[in-house]
Amino acid sequence: MDASFKHDITKYVLQNAIKYKGKANPGAVIGKLFAEHPHLKENAKELSKEVMKIIGEIAKLPLEKQEEKLKEIAPELLEKKEHEEKDIFAFVGIREGEDVVTAFPPEPSKYPHIGHAKAIILNYELAKRHNGKFILRFEDTNPELAQEEFYKIHIDNYEWLGIKPDKIDHASDHMQEMYGYAEKIIKDNHAYMCSCPQETIKKNRQEGNECGCRMMQPDRNLELWKEMFETKAGKYVMRLKGRMQSPNTTLRDPVMFRVIDEPHPKTKKKYRVWPTYAVMDGIEGVTHRLRTKEFELRNELQRLLQTLCGFKETQIYEFARFNLEGVESSGRIIREKVQKKELLGWDDPSLTTLVALRRRGFLPEAIKSFVISTGITKNESVLTWDDLIMHNRRLLDSGCNRCFFIEDPKEIKIENAPEQDVELKMHPDHAERGVRKFKTHEKFYVAEKDYKEFKDGKLYRLMDCINFKRKKHEFVFDSLEYERYKDHGDKIIHWLPAEKDLVKVEVLMPDGKTRKGLAEHAVDKLKENDIVQFSRFGFCRLDKKEKGKLSFWYTHD
Ligand SMILES: [Zn+2]
Questions:
Q1: Model confidence pTM above 0.85
Q2: Checking DSSP bridges between strand 237-240 and strand 191-194, what pairing results, if any?
Q3: How remote is the CA of residue 210 from the centroid of ligand 1, in Å?
Q4: pLDDT at 322 over 90
Q5: Fewer CB under 10 Å: which end of the chain, C or N?
Q6: How does pLDDT run across 218-243, given as a tens digit for each residue?
Q7: For residue 435, what are the CA distances in angstroms to 171, 213, 283, 425?
Q8: What distance in angstroms lies between residue 232's CA and the mean position of ligand 1's atoms?
Q9: Signed CA dihedral, 66, 71, 73, 77: sign only
Q10: With contact defined as beta carbons under 8 Å apart, do 125 and 93 qualify?
């Protein structure tokens, strides 16, 4: 066997061995070799023998030696390990064997977006990396905001992201416990019942003034607390005795419980007294939590409440909130635009809600690697679609097959083009995925955009097919060889043979516009949700398959 092949065998054996802790898989190595040197298939037997021999030799080397050797002969194949394995949670300082319980607490009132994805992924990852427990908890103690449909939407979206909660909890399932803690705080004289009007409470809090209700004895407060369950909304609220002059305004005797008569989506009319600050981290025994920094001011209050209730303190870490530049993230504005039909819905392709990203063709793994790459920092950074797209493209590039889609097809006749059977690879780097076959002769479809740019005398190539020139308003065959194009050619374009079994295709773009054209018959084999790369156009996810027409959503280029 040729020495240059030995080099290639060795490099792929090393790469695969390093990936799988020392021993390479012959099938994987041979696959890579065939992809790079298709003609080796003729000598498959000999090649296989050689591969087995080299696998045996390499397996004798310790892992570090294998890495050293690969770095020497083919450093491009070495995965950037330091980067990937860097422990982004090192700053939390969790000790070996320490119990870790993390949680993510969405309110079931809106569609989760990529910012929620970051928070849930970080909390989930932290728990998983320490054999801990992760709780998905619905913070649903405001019946005016919680809505039935959103419980399932959140669960589905996070499941799609690959999150498997150890427990799905609802704050509304813990009302009796929360009432118990409320009574304890009242008895300990850390809370009081306030009957001041809402406006007065607000004004006093702004100005740092205590009201007369604060002086009441615990016994009387306990009586009024019990009375509150029967009184009409607004008569009493239960307030924490914080510090009225605290510069942190959340500590200025915040309202802890109030009456809301709106029926709750889960518990219906069972409860009327609802907490504003559920002490769920304490009830669930959450040890660590990573959250966005807009909650920072509440940390002191949370710590105080946990102490008063007798809970172990939850370690809280903040990171900056983020969204992609130019993307609408305000739920209120999105809702308005959906109502005015300026957006298709919460899954409009211009949005970063998880439903939108999913429908466009973003993969959960890409979202995960992207949000982790943004780090756990309090510094706001400007992120763009391109930052996210980079992570997705890396995955789609090797995963998706290629296809020809001709936008606004224009038929051309190339005089004297020979009859041919043309085979195109499904994927340039994965020969094992097979080919698409076309019968071609003189008539082709090309995209109108390409058609308009043809100039007399220039040499063009129909990708992997033929070279041709435009002469006046005619097209004439020039040659077959890529080499001739390479030396004299102007542009390679994609094409379709002008025949009947082409498929009508529509592609919805992120700006809401639809692009139309024809695609090769191979797209008929795609299933809904499959993602394909239309050559020279971009990645597209098949959204809807109808007889005679396929509708795609444009992912990105
Ligand atoms: Zn008062």
A1: no
A2: antiparallel
A3: 8
A4: no
A5: C
A6: 999 999 999 999 999 999 999 999 99
A7: 55, 80, 59, 4
A8: 17
A9: positive
A10: no
